Fold:
Amino acid sequence: MLAARTEAQAGSDRDGEVRAIRWLAQWCQLRGDFSTAADLLAPALTLLDGAETDETIQLYLLAGLIQARQGQFDRAAEQAETAQRMAEARQEPVGLAKAYRLLAQISTQRGDNRRAIEQAQQAVQLCDQAGDREGQATALNLLANAYFNAGQWAQASHTYHEVRGRFERLGDVYQRAFADNNLGEIALAQGDEAVAQLHARQSFDLAQELGLQGEAALARRVLGEIALAQNEFQGASKFLQHSVAILDELGETYQAARTRLRLAQVHAAQGQFEAAHSEIERCLPIFEQLEIGPDAALARELLKQVK
Structure:
């Protein structure tokens, strides 16, 4: 990727250089290096000098994804809406579908599941029209996330299984790691701890193999939640503490806060109310700042119990 950028610079190939920068930023994002990824995108947009091209759309979407993973949902939504406007003006269905996918992800994380379902369904439709099989599988995964958060577990489970099968057929191991983790969460919500353990462990092993620190941390959180459900408090604490340390290091503010809430539940279950209170004091302001209603409500309810 660095060689491609150097070659493009030497040949005064603006579009080629921008594309190489985007690929490099995407690689950094996948590995959880959000700071480097964001630093790369700013000069790429400068190179385009206000031109509204397909590459510009991709840059805005990648910037929005990085911001969403860091819990900067307002800024991420602005980037997604800018990309959406450009894609609509250019009648570019693949870019438009990606914009709807990012918006669905943001809506899900904010707890607006009805809107997330609508946006994900729109993305599924656009990908179908464009013949984008991988994009459609990703959109279906977001749809399943929204179903899960809305408590529509049967629909979520069916869609997650469909998504995993699609990613396996496509050979997309990165997305399969996400799908396995999601299947672990839905199995745990349905009380099937053995199946949840199987999927979470598969997700963790695959993420470790691919060097995906963020996804490995999320899989650790699910493994911690399973241990908590089994009253294995020492194991739960170990998984969750390791998870939150990595998420903090990566700057994944929202996911780190969610993990701290689980740690607070582990402490509360053992009667360690001071430790539980400390974790809630760290995560509740983040939920309130990001306007994550369901997580904030759960944190406030737990706070009443440990005071």
User: Anything to note?
Assistant: Confidence is low (pLDDT under 50) at residues 1-11. The radius of gyration is 20 Å. The first helix runs from residue 2 to 10.
